[in-house]
Amino acid sequence: MRYTVNQKACTNWYHPHTMDKTAEHVYKGLAGLIIIEDDESRSLNLPKRYSRDDIPLALQDRNFTNGQIDYNPAMADIMRGYVGDTFIANGAIEPTLDVEAKEIRFRILNGSNSTVYTLGFSDGRSFK
Ligand SMILES: [Cu+2]
C-alpha cells in the first residue's frame, strides 16, 4: 500500500477502523506512530536524534492473562472504554531508558482505549 503524505510536520498515530473492531485491533497492537518532518520542523531548535533525544512514547494500558494480552470487555467496557490494569510504554511493562543529561524531546501518545493520564516528573520539574 502506498499513500502520499500531504501535511505539515507532526506526530500522528495510525490504526485500522474496521467496523466494530477498532478498539480490539488497537488493544492487540495494530497501531503505531507516523512521524512527519518537513523543512520547517528540521529548522527548529529541537532534539532530532531519533531514539537518542527525540523519543516517541506510546502510553497504553493492558490486561494480561498468563502472559498474553487479554481483551475480554463486558458491554459496559465497550460503552465507556476498556481499561487495563497494567501500564505499558512502547509495548513494554516498566520500561527504562538511559538518556543524556540534556533536553529530551518526547512525542507522547495516549494510545489507551479510554484511560486518561496525568504526566509529570518524579522530581517535580516541568515540561517545556
Ligand atoms: Cu481512529
Q: How many independent structural domains?
A: 1
Strand content: 25-35%
Report the mean per-residue pLDDT as an integer.
94
Say how many strands there are.
8
Order of helices and strands: EHEHEEEHEEE
What is the CA-atom radius of gyration, in angstroms?
A: 17 Å
Helix/strand structural class: alpha+beta
Ions and ligands: copper (II) ion
CATH superfamily: Cupredoxins -  blue copper proteins
CATH class: Mainly Beta
Order of strands, widest sheet: 7-6-3-8
Largest sheet: 4 strands, mixed
Low-confidence blocks of residues: none
CATH topology: Immunoglobulin-like
End-to-end distance: 37 Å
Number of helices: 3
Helix content: 10-25%
Q: What overall form do the CA principal axes indicate?
A: globular
Question: Would you write up a description of this structure?
Answer:
The protein has 128 residues and is of the alpha+beta class. It has one domain (10-110): Cupredoxins -  blue copper proteins (Immunoglobulin-like), CATH 2.60.40.420. Helices cover 13% and strands 27% of the residues. The protein contains three helices and eight strands. It has helices at residues 22-27, 39-43, 75-80; strands at residues 10-14, 32-36, 54-62, 64-65, 68-69, 86-89, 92-93, 105-110. The strands form three sheets. A four-stranded mixed β-sheet has the order 7-6-3-8, with no helix packed on it. It has a two-stranded antiparallel ribbon with strand order 1-2. The protein is globular and about 50 Å long. It starts with 9 loop residues before the first strand and ends in an 18-residue tail after the last strand. Copper (II) ion (CU) binds next to loops.
